[in-house]
């Protein structure tokens, strides 16, 4: 999973009205992994990976596969 995907999964798990302690713990893991991925972004304000993060935090689907930006 990419950082933005972890972010989305954490949000999805927390939006469930029937969430359990386990789903909250799972969401915390995804949020932590998303934070780690965001911290490891390559330099450059206009890099594709940063654009993908901007999309996900604004509720949009990124049009770029950020997994390709680290190759």
Structure characterization notes:
The protein is an all-alpha fold. The chain has one domain. The chain is 59% helix and 0% strand. The protein contains three helices and no strands. It has helices at residues 3-15, 21-39, 48-57. The longest helix is centred in the middle third of the chain and has 19 residues, at 21-39. It is elongated and about 40 Å long. The relative contact order is 0.19.
Task: Give the topology, please.
Layout: H1 3-15, H2 21-39, H3 48-57
Helix pairs in contact: 1-2, 1-3
Strand-residue proportion: under 5%
Helix-residue proportion: 55-70%
Structurally, the number of domains stands at 1
Structural class: mainly alpha
Cα-based radius of gyration, to the nearest Å: 13 Å
Q: Tell me the major beta sheet.
A: none
Q: Could you give the distance between the termini?
A: 15 Å
Number of helices: 3
